[in-house]
Amino acid sequence: MIPPLNRQHDAYIQHTIDMKTKPQGALGKLETLAHQLVSILSQGMSRAQLEAEKPAIVQPQMMIFAGDHGIAAEGVSIAPSEVTGQMVANFATGGAAINVLCAQLGWQLSVIDCGILTAPAPELGIVSQRLGHITRPLHIEPALSEAQLDQGLLYGQEAVQTALDSGSNVFALGEMGIGNTTAAAAIFSALSGLTGAETVGRGTGVSAEVVEKKQQLIDQALLLHGDALDDPREVLRRLGGFEICQMVGAMLEIARAQKVILVDGFIATAAAMLACRIEPVSQDYMVFAHCSGEQGHRRMLNELNAEPLLDLNMRLGEGSGAAMALPLCQSALAFYYQMASFESAAVTQVVDTHE
């Protein structure tokens, strides 16, 4: 069971924000973010501890989950499945966008092989949590077996456990997997009742013909799996991927530990939707980092009633959007703890009359 967020300090946190030397609400989303972060990071603390200890971000962890998808054989991506393994090697050697962003912004990066076509060379230092070498095609049969589903959820928990044990309290989950925008769109369709035409976008840049094919494959999968899709675990098993499964397990474990989950783009939000359907209270611990350029992502966020921090028209994946949100989290906590109050600064309180 995931404990609900204890909101005993909410009124105090909001009062602290409101009494800073600014008009109320003048820092916009940064104020909402500060409230959420302080609330999560102060779980289990008394009011005195909250004031004295000033909880901060500790060892932020970026975890990239990689897996290959059987649906990729249908030509739903601009790249063949082999590119998943090639990009994993690129992550391991520091050459990808996410490596640059993590180095720039202070993330600790790890890469998990959840099941790609060819296992990476051991010297690359990739964490091996393989469920197979590729999922089955979701429009023909369930993508994962029941055993793979259970093991994948457990692997996801284990992936974050060491970092949790060492004190990390902010996590971002990225992904790599050719074909995984199709899987994510199928998951979104199953959870929302929308058709493939409403959830499928261009992914990393496919043609209009490929978009139409993806839509048809998703509608075929929804028809094939039918009423089984009423169960979120079955949605994950039948339409998901090895990496999406482990991301769901990781999100549930982070929420269970009452730490912050920075949710990335389209694929990561599909995993978040599943986590929220399995354990609705897990959304209390999620911060939605950005709105992806992928067509269905805004609809996903609306379905969750979630407001993203950023909208940079990014659609890369790899956790790149979540990586970009870390400075905002740091800034939100900095203003909360370091900005003077009207009283401490001897400034006349500003009353905002803006409507």
Q: Can you describe what's shown?
A:
The structure is a single chain. The protein is an alpha/beta fold. Helix content is about 50%, strand content about 10%. It has 15 helices and six strands. It has helices at about 10-20, 30-40, 45-55, 80-90, 95-105, 145-165, 180-190, 195-200, 210-225, 230-240, 240-255, 265-280, 295-305, 320-340, 340-345; strands spanning about 60-65, 110-115, 125-130, 170-175, 260-265, 285-290. It has a six-stranded parallel β-sheet, sandwiched between helices. Helix 1 packs antiparallel against helix 2, helix 7 (about 180-190) runs antiparallel to helix 10 and helix 7 crosses helix 12 (about 265-280). The chain starts with 9 loop residues before the first helix and ends in a 10-residue tail after the last helix. The mean pLDDT is about 95.
Mean of the pLDDT scores? 96
- Spans where pLDDT lies below 50 across 5 or more residues: none
Name the CATH superfamily assignment of the largest domain: Nicotinate-nucleotide-dimethylbenzimidazole phosphoribosyltransferase (CobT), large domain
Number of strands: 6
Order the strands across the largest sheet as they lie in space.
3-2-1-4-5-6
Structural class: alpha/beta
Name the CATH class of the largest domain.
Alpha Beta
